[in-house]
Structure formats: C-alpha cells, structure tokens
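Quarterly update from the structural biology core.
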Amino acid sequence: MSDATPDRAEREADDLEAPEPPRPRRKGIYILPNLFTLAALFGGFYAVVMAMDGRFEQAAIGIFCAAVLDSLDGRVARMTNTQSAFGEQMDSLSDMVSFGAAPALIAYEWALQGLGKLGWIAAFVYCSGAALRLARFNTNIGVVDKRFFQGLPSPAAAALIIGFIWVMDSAGWRDAWSVDWLRWTTFALTLYAGLTMVTNVPFYSFKDVSFKRTVPFIVIVAIALGIAVINIHPPMVLFALFVVYGFSGYAVFAYKRSKGRPVSVIATSTDEPDEAGLHR
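Predicted structure, tokenized:
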C-alpha cells in the first residue's frame, strides 16, 4: 500500500501538468464569392422594399441585378477555388429570398391582391414551388445531368414574372390590381412559373459554356450586338428572352419524346426509396 500511494500521486501530478491539446482552428469564410451572394440577397430585399413603396421599375431592376450576381458567385468560387459548404447554403438562402419570396410578394403587391384569396394562393404556389425546387436541386445535385436544369430555374422563373411587371409598368399601367386582364395574366404567369419549377422538364443550364476557351471573333461581335439590342428597350427585350427560355424546356421535352430519347435529366438513380419519384 505504501509503495502504490506515491506512484498514484506522481501520476496525478503528471496529469495536472500535462498541456491541454491545442484547439482546432476555426474555418474562415471566403469573402469574394460570398460578397456576390450577399449582393444578390440585397437585390431581392431592395426589390421588396421598392414594391412596398409602389416603385415597381426599381423592384424589377433589383431582381434582375440579383439574377446577374447569382450567376456569378458560383463561377467566381470555382475560378478562385473558394468553394465551401457555407457558400452553398448561403447561396440557397439568398435564392429563396431573391427568386422565391420577393417575386411572389411583388406580384401580389402589383396585381394579385385584386383577386383576393386566389391572388395570395397563386403567390404562395410560386413561393412554395421555389422552395421545393431549391430543396430538390440541393439533394439531386450529384445525379442530375449538368447540361440541364430539372425544372425551370428559380432566377428564370422570377425574371418571367418580374419582366412582365416591368414591361407593363414602363408602358404606363398603374393600379394593375384593378385591371382585369392584368390581374389574370399575372395570375397565369405566376402559376406557370411556380409549377414549372417543380416539373422534370429539362431546361438548358449553360454550365458547359467555358469562359477560359478561345472563341471566334464573330462571337464577340454577336455579344456586342446583343448588348446593343437590349439597350433599345431593356424591359421588353429581357422579358422576351425569358419568355423564350421559360417555354424552351417544353420544346426540348417534346422534341426528345418525339425522337424516342430519354427526357429525364437524372443521370443515375439513388438508393433512397423515398426519392424514387424524383428519378423517373
């Protein structure tokens, strides 16, 4: 007993004197891509504030600026090798605000409120469609063909609704909630955009377009001409472009179906039985 006691005391003393293990360093947050994401989020927030003040042209500009910034943050992250899980989650939350909640609120404020319950139901269908589309995109990102989106992407859906509002507002239409054809057109566009986001219709993603490749000189000329055409009447030209894109998925779907080609953009299937319906 007398010999064991000193050894125990020495061990306890050694344990007390042992240095604590170093704490793991906290991971930082990449500034550059998240600045683009925050700017896109601000564009959506700004659009809502402008719509509440009845300034729908500024609201539309805010949404379109958010769409441009949203298209850049991922590319900037990949080009600078600054991808992170935090950035992915931040991008999804920003998209939900700028291209989910904001367009629904703007459409309701502009025209849908004149339809009573039908108006806010249409706005909710769009908002919930954006949330479901983003959730499906995040869970299916590893199995979807990168060349196509599964359903209408939320920035394009937002541009479809907001582009129409911008065109009508620039044409001088005010108090759209009291004009029958404007209310019902907005209602139809809102439902179309919201439901198309959750379909399996393929929409070209442009992700195979690389800015690092050399291109013929004529491509630069075409880009310059495109910018000039947009400047003729930005609301009308941008809305027309997104109308074409917003219906292009159904044209691709019909073409593939007529040729007997697979129309699903799911490259492989997952083993999760509760997601079987997503991969048909």
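Residues 268-280 have pLDDT under 50 and may be disordered.
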